[in-house]
Amino acid sequence: MRSWSLLFIALSIFLIAGCKPGEPVIETRSSQAFLIKPGDIIVTSLTSDSLVQLDSDGNFKSILHTLPVSTDSIHSVAFKSDTKEIIFTINGVARVGAISVVDGSFRTFILNSNLTGALRGLAQLPGGDILIAEANNVERFSSEGVRRTNVSGVIWPNTLGATAAPYQIHIAENGDIIVCGSANVNRFTQNAVRVGAAVVSAIAATTAATGCIEMANGSIAVAFSGTTDTYRSVASTMLQASIATIYSDLAYLSTPQGLTQNLTGNLLSADSAFNQIVEFTPTGTFVRTLGGSVVVAPNAVFSVPNY
Predict the structure, then answer these.
(1) What is the DSSP letter of 147?
(2) Is residue 6 assigned to a domain?
(3) What are phi and psi of 182, to 5 degrees?
(4) Residue 2 covered by a domain
(5) What is the DSSP code string of 228-268?
């Protein structure tokens, strides 16, 4: 019994001596903080061809990735839940990159010769498949990056109701596909069946829908760009009569680029003219601007969800 006690004491001294002052003796992988945390804000920069990481208050944390070729550019960002990765579309050599939230490691997730047009928004369906907006179509890939052309009799790529130049794709709570483009916002089931109608801004010379997401109340928030840049809401039924203005202030937002919702439920939108992110409530109350000192020519903004 005495020998075991001496061995235990010796082992304890060895472990403690091997640690710096203030460090825990033993640290497991599960107790270490991931590099990318829920609530972090990911912004794409057209000028620097990079993916910028901010904390939830807009303070700079890191450059997650910079493209090696200046003729390439990063556009949109989404979350791949099954592998806990930030995924993003890249133009130039059209492809999709992926960065682990655990350690920030990068990999090329999708590189397919059929992706030849301008890539924009992307999103992951509840079953794991990835949708990618390309030119005037939406492509579909498996969670492993394999192109899918027929799913339950639905042909892909799909025009999704001829949504012109689809810009952002968002998956609703019930799995419906919300997609917006150069003229309107649309909603479809996962089998590409339209829900309601195509909804337009109903504001003269303000037609380009550059962002669309489902809010907590089920309505769809849409960013419309044009003469009167504005954010409008549309009921889940997608009826034109349901459209209403949420927020508009040209002093803060003049060229909206995408929409995301942070963990508090507020909306975030990047502005590529003022080089900042604007936060406002779903009812249209201005909260603050973020990232003004580090955000340059943003294409999109994304708030990392709980995972």
Answers:
(1) B
(2) no
(3) -70, -10
(4) no
(5) T-EEEEE-TT--GGG-EEEE--TTT-SSEEEEEE-TTS-EE
How many residues are recorded in the chain? 307
Phi, psi of 150 (to 5 degrees): -145, 115
Classify residue 9: in a domain, yes or no: no
Rg value, the chain, Cα: 22
307 residues of the chain, pLDDT tens digit each: 444 444 333 434 333 334 333 333 332 234 247 999 999 999 998 888 999 999 999 999 999 999 998 889 999 999 999 999 999 999 999 999 999 999 999 999 999 999 988 999 999 999 999 999 998 899 999 999 999 999 999 999 999 988 888 999 999 999 999 999 988 999 999 999 999 999 999 998 888 999 999 999 999 999 999 888 999 999 999 999 999 999 999 999 888 989 999 999 999 999 989 999 999 999 999 999 999 888 888 989 999 999 9
- CA angle (174, 161, 284) in 5-degree steps: 55
User: Closest Cα partner for 182 from 200, 195, 197?
Assistant: 200
pTM, 2 dp: 0.88
Residue 231: CB partners within 8 Å, gap ≥ 6?
221, 222, 223, 224, 245, 246, 247, 248, 256, 259, 267, 269, 280, 284
- The alpha carbon of residue 73 and the mean position of all alpha carbons in its chain are separated, in whole angstroms, by 16
Number of domains in the chain: 1
Let me know: does 24 contact 15? Beta carbons within 8 Å.
no
Enter the DSSP assignment of 158. Answer: B
| Distance between CA atoms of residues 73 and 62, nearest Å | 18
- Domain of 140, in residue numbers: 32-303
